Amino acid sequence: MTDLQIRPAQPDDAEPIKALAVAADMFALDEVAMFDPMLAGFFDGSLDGHKWIVAETADGEPIAGAAYYAPEPFADRMWNLYFIAVDPGTQGSGSGTALLEHIEGELRALGQSEARTLIVETSSTAKYERTQQFYASRGFVEEARIRQFYGPEDDKVVFWKSLVD
To answer: Less packed terminus of the chain by CB within 10 Å, N or C?
Structure first.
């Protein structure tokens, strides 16, 4: 993807982010309201350390991707990539990789005193097989699997990556 710009999300991005989550078939329309307090806390600064970013093209199209990451509570310098989604029409064009590389760069820039690992969780179902391959091909390793977390025959798969060289 050419001319992709990654920037912090703005309040006007809230609805497009939620629409992206639905379009990417990650959440149902009635589920994306749960994003509202996370977005509001980011915009007003009440969720310390939480970050929402968006990827957009220079041609004025709707956002090509979005991500949400934050420090993992009760852990030592571990961060969690809670959400990353790319417009289904642009999947495979590098938007997801650009978002992930941006996040890793931001966290590495914080230094080892604030960020040493990044985790991401996904489903074990066939629908998320490409997602699992995406993380594995970018240096993440499967660290844990919690059986039947999301439902019968739907495990939570946790991927882990060191941010320390």
So the answer is: C
**Strand stretches in 4-139, DSSP E:** 4-8, 51-57, 65-71, 78-86, 117-123
CA distances from residue 136 to 23, 71, 90, 161 in whole angstroms, order as listed = 24, 21, 20, 10
Total number of domains in the chain = 1
Give the domain extent around 100: 4-162
- 125 CB-contact burial (10 Å; exposed 0-12 / middle 13-18 / buried 19+): middle
How many angstroms separate the CA atoms of 145 and 91, rounded?
A: 26
What whole-number distance in Å separates Cα of residue 22 and Cα of residue 87?
10
Q: Report the phi/psi class of residue 28: left, alpha or beta, with left for phi > 0 and alpha for psi in -120 to 50.
A: beta
Q: What pTM did the predictor assign? A: 0.93
Q: Are 156 and 146 in contact (CB under 8 A)?
A: yes
Q: What is the pLDDT of residues 93-113, one digit of tens each?
A: 889 999 999 999 999 999 999
Please report which helix (H) or strand (E) contains residue 156, including its range: strand 154-162
pLDDT mean over 16-36: 94
Instruction: Say how far apart CA 158 and CA 119 lie, in whole Å.
Output: 7
Half-sphere exposure of 135 (CA within 13 A, CB side): 25
